[in-house]
Amino acid sequence: MSTNESRQPRVFFYVQHLLGIGHLARASRVAAALVEGGFAVTLVTGGLPVKGFPGPGIEHIELPPVATGVEFAGLAQADGTPVDKVFEEARTRLLLDAFHRVKPDVVITEAFPFGRRQVRFELLPLLDAIAATEPRPIVCASVRDILQENRKPGRDQETVDLVQNHFDHVLVHGDPAFARIEDTFPLADRISERVIYTGMVAPPAPNPSPERYDIVVSAGGGVVGAALMEAAVAASADFDAALKWCVITGPNLPQADFDRLAVGTPDNISLFRFRPDFPNLLAAATLSISQAGYNTVGDLLQTSCRLLLVPFATGGETEQTERAEKLKAMGLAAVVEEASLSKESMSAAITEALKLPPPSTVDIRMDGAKETGRILRGLLAERVN
């Protein structure tokens, strides 16, 4: 497909966040870099609204939102009503109408077909619509460096079939020196010619905050972080009371859990729902206690803040455990398994983590957002030539 030099190349970027905000945050960061690089980006989201995302300069289409629980058992509407066929068909029409209106040069689906099977009711019709379009846009899957392992027979082959039949490229947002797609996707050799590594999608290294805490405790959006934070607060009693702690619960921590944390919190612990300067706090801290999500680790790898990771593993989730174990094997993180959380295990891990080298000593490419733009420019240029 040729692109007209007199206009911006158009990118149609689909992202469905279900539980946390990691997928949306990464997609928004890529979209922002594309806009900065001269692309016109339409970001289509299908999850509950999150303040601050996707950010300025990005056309945003919000489909009627759906969400799910920790076990990813099914989809529900914003009011808790289960998703039915009528709802699915209405969302699908909105998605297809948006695609035909934008007439993109590039279509990106975040996670799919490696994940987000719950919304294939609308993504499979989108792929069919793309295939029927002339000229056909470039189609890319956008995935993080470590994938969730599929637990059901045939799922990986189904993914390969979709990639081979519908996708030109798989943009892996990671550095192969740290994690390769074949580490967590057993059929990667069948799509290897379509895989392009971008480097990790991370913001520029943050400036240290003038408000300094020795230990920063966080749990992403907070939906599933209560046990981590309760163990950390309890373990604080085993350390010098002069240490300053910052506990950021996340905006989605249930109020009852927040109230329980607030009761009897020592004077050296500051409790917050949310801190927009979170990366800056990490840059000034000695130790971070967190889950092992992609975005949090991306922030941490650009600081001198030591890492104590408690990977999210509920419902058979494997991605964060894989990331945490890789960092532990590199000597860059202490790890406590979610199932082993206690005051004692947390205290021992804090002691271990404080002895580790700073993670910024590792050489991992972190410019994945800008590199994605460079890659897409190159792919479009190849089509012109």
Based on the model shown, name its key terms.
385 residues, Rossmann fold, alpha/beta
How would you sum up this structure, described in words?
The protein is an alpha/beta fold and 385 residues long. The chain has two domains: 10-201 and 366-384, Rossmann fold (3-Layer(aba) Sandwich); 215-361, Glycogen Phosphorylase B (Rossmann fold), CATH 3.40.50. It is built from eleven helices and 15 strands. A seven-stranded parallel β-sheet has the order 3-2-1-6-7-8-9, with helices on both faces. A six-stranded parallel β-sheet has the order 12-11-10-13-14-15. The longest helix has 18 residues, at 85-102. The radius of gyration is 21 Å and the shape is globular.
SSE layout and pairings?
Layout: E1 10-15, H1 22-36, E2 40-45, E3 59-62, E4 66-67, E5 76-77, H2 85-102, E6 106-110, H3 120-131, E7 138-144, H4 155-166, E8 169-173, E9 195-197, E10 215-218, H5 226-235, E11 245-248, H6 255-262, E12 269-272, H7 278-284, E13 287-290, H8 294-300, E14 306-309, H9 319-329, E15 333-335, H10 343-353, H11 368-384
Parallel strand pairs: 1-2, 1-6, 2-3, 6-7, 7-8, 8-9, 10-11, 10-13, 11-12, 13-14, 14-15
Antiparallel strand pairs: 4-5
Helix pairs in contact: 1-11, 2-3, 5-10
